[in-house]
Amino acid sequence: MQFFRSKQVVIAVVVFALLCVGTVTFLGFSRTPEKPIPAIETPKVGEAIHESIGVSVEGRSLDAYTFGSGKTHLLFVGGMHGGYEWNSVLLAYQFLDFLEVHPEAVPAELSITVIPSLNPDGVFKVTGKVGRFNLTDVSSDTETLASGRFNAHKVDLNRNFDCKWKPEGIWKSKTVSAGSAPFSEPETEAIKNFIAKDTPSAVIFWHSQANAVYASECEKGILPETLTLMSVYAKASGYPSVKAFGAYAVTGDAEGWLASIGIPAITVELSTHEAIEWNQNLSGIQALFTYYGEKEQLQR
To answer: Which member of 7, 57, 164, 216 has the lowest number of beta carbons within 10 Å of its beta carbon?
Structure first.
């Protein structure tokens, strides 16, 4: 009899314990903690999504910064010619600073990517700096500045794209290396892969110092949307609009390659090698924001 009572007590204690555990679990608690759910990192308001799209010949990062998440994707590129056109790099960084302070400037319909320097090795030749630099860092030596146009393989990157490519290109009256084949350079291959992955709606390249906005074309002529892109930017910024660059023959250029694959692209040439002409370019940028924002709304 004593054994039977002890057994009843044990059973009662076990049942009570199970009920307690069930009650605790029901109330949302557990004696065995669950594995925490990893937090999803999202950028803060005004903070860009940063990615490295590749590295240069000398191993410097090719950085891209994206603001907004709209369907229409605009890509802005500076520093194709490195330190020789260092003001195009500073203009791109000024644009990044503006977007960080004014994220509301990007319409909800758009996403904006900025690659401030496609040729960081060329910039380093002239400034001795990686990434951002100051005016005081820029070399005043003419030969150093000219050498900064090319990458570390001494290739003119804007002759290394797949549009009428030739092993040698022309820059002013000089013959320059265009690489061993289209996209032979890590810098041009990186932007090719980025564009293949993200397929921008339009691409804007900043150069200097021809003081104009140029359309792009390859072997099938100028895309209709390219003419609109050129006109919108030129009218707002005050730069002259020019359909074709005629000073000398250009082969293997990035803008022409984009035209060949159906992506509108323009070249915005600053008027000097020294100034970023921020107000003019901001007006052109804002005009593009308005144009593409309204266009996306109409297509809904």
So the answer is: 7
Number of structural domains in the chain: 1
**Residue 70 in domain:** yes
Helix 278-298 with 224-237: angle, nearest 10 deg = 140
Q: How far is CA 70 from CA 103, 109, 118, 161, 200, in A?
A: 13, 4, 24, 28, 11
Contacts of 112 (CB under 8 A, 6+ apart): 66, 67, 68, 73, 74, 76, 99, 106
- Please tell me the distance from the alpha carbon of residue 163 to that of residue 256, in angstroms, as a whole number: 6
Short-list 202, 292, 219, CA closest to 256:
219
Residues 6+ apart with CB under 8 A from 70: 106, 107, 108, 109, 110, 111, 296
Q: Which pTM does this prediction carry?
A: 0.85
The two beta strands, 265-270 and 174-177, are unpaired
Structure-token pair, residue 238: 């005050």
pLDDT at 46: 65
Q: Give the CATH number of the domain where residue 76 resides.
A: 3.40.630.10
How many whole angstroms separate alpha carbon 96 and alpha carbon 114? Answer: 7
Range of the domain at 229: 49-298
pLDDT averaged over consecutive 10-residue blocks of the chain (300 residues)?
43 42 37 37 66 98 97 98 98 97 96 98 97 96 97 98 97 96 98 97 98 96 97 98 91 97 98 97 98 88
Residue 274 lies in a domain: yes
